[in-house]
Design brief:
This protein is α+β, with helices and mostly antiparallel strands and about 325 residues long. About 15% of the residues lie in helices and about 50% in strands. The longest helix is centred in the first third of the chain and has 21 residues. The two termini are about 30 Å apart.
């Protein structure tokens, strides 16, 4: 238990100071490229909000729902395999580019959903410290594909997709008297997304989300409980289009600056033989805002909540 708590505290301390002002950096770069266009601040803020919201819905909490241990191997029968179907919803703050004015960027509360199929296979069963302490440095490979549901009424055009691959590293396998503890890293590619309105400010982005998780959990007689902390990093290419006006450049394509945030989550699951039903709920931190009044009343520092429901079969 002390090891798991120490890992989560280390992750919290690592993530706390890195809420980089990606929107401010992107605004400056866009303004330099376009001659100081005022719409750059709105577009940069929308990029940060959209990339993080989509990344949160696709990444959610634990990468293998309903367990804090690695899958490992079945003795004499080869690696364990798991297949999960998961539905995730994230409630995110989003700037209203459809109704944006020159000096005002209204705020929306949007719901982004994600339906995915996720697979995992045990690669290495790990080492055993003692009869009750096993699974040290065990390793699973995880992969997923999914479809994003984006609210068209709030300016999104079409739906996106996700594809991810990563690994979960076991530090302690759950047994009768000890919890399971693991860490993981997954990289997800989230397709081509467009946010905005014709003849107004629009943002086109191809976000990438890299997710780190630390998880601890224990199964009791009625259900299993897990708790975790995460650190997500978002990046990707972005094109900001401003409203048409004269001869000034109104479209800028840049590599979006990477930005990070912390999230916390917990989950409950119930097992019936090989079937696991798992639910999770969590919270993700917001981001530093811009001092520019053009992004008001939108407040990027507001956090986001998310939840998921999963069905997992393990062999």
């Amino acid at each position: 238990m002390r090891l798991g708590a120490g890992l989560m505290l280390a992750l919290l301390n690592l993530a706390a100071p890195v809420r980089a002002q990606a929107a401010a950096e992107l605004t400056a770069r866009c303004s330099d490229a376009s001659g100081g266009a005022a719409w750059c601040a709105a577009g940069a803020t929308a990029y940060q909000a959209a990339a993080s919201g989509i990344g949160l819905a696709a990444s959610a909490g634990s990468d293998i729902p309903g367990t804090s241990s690695t899958l490992g191997w079945r003795r004499g029968l080869g690696p364990r395999l798991a297949l999960s179907a998961r539905f995730t919803g994230a409630r995110i703050p989003l700037p209203d580019l459809v109704e944006a004015l020159a000096l005002e960027l209204p705020e929306l509360r949007s719901t982004v959903s994600h339906a995915s199929l996720e697979g995992a296979v045990g690669l290495f069963d790990g080492f055993r410290w003692a009869p009750q302490y096993g699974g040290f440095l065990s390793l699973d490979l995880v992969a997923s594909v999914g479809v994003l549901g984006l609210p068209r009424a709030h300016g999104f055009e079409g739906d996106g997709y996700s594809a991810g691959v990563g690994a979960r590293l076991g530090l302690l396998r759950e047994s009768f008297d000890v919890p399971g503890i693991s860490v993981s890293a997954v990289r997800r590619f989230l397709g081509d997304v467009r946010l905005g309105a014709p003849r107004a400010i629009t943002v086109r982005l191809e976000p990438v989300a890299t997710s780190f998780r630390a998880l601890i959990g224990k199964e009791f007689s009625a259900a299993a409980i897990v708790a975790g902390a995460g650190w997500d990093r978002y990046s990707g290419t972005v094109t900001i289009d401003g409203p048409e006006s004269g001869r000034q450049p109104r479209s800028v394509t840049l590599d979006g600056p990477a930005f990070d945030r912390l999230l916390l989550y917990m989950g409950v699951s119930r097992t019936w033989q090989v079937l696991v039903v798992a639910g999770e709920i969590g919270w993700a931190a917001g981001f530093d805002g811009l001092p520019d009044p053009s992004v008001q009343p939108f407040d990027p520092s507001v956090g986001s909540v998310f939840g998921s429901l999963s069905l997992r079969i393990t062999r």
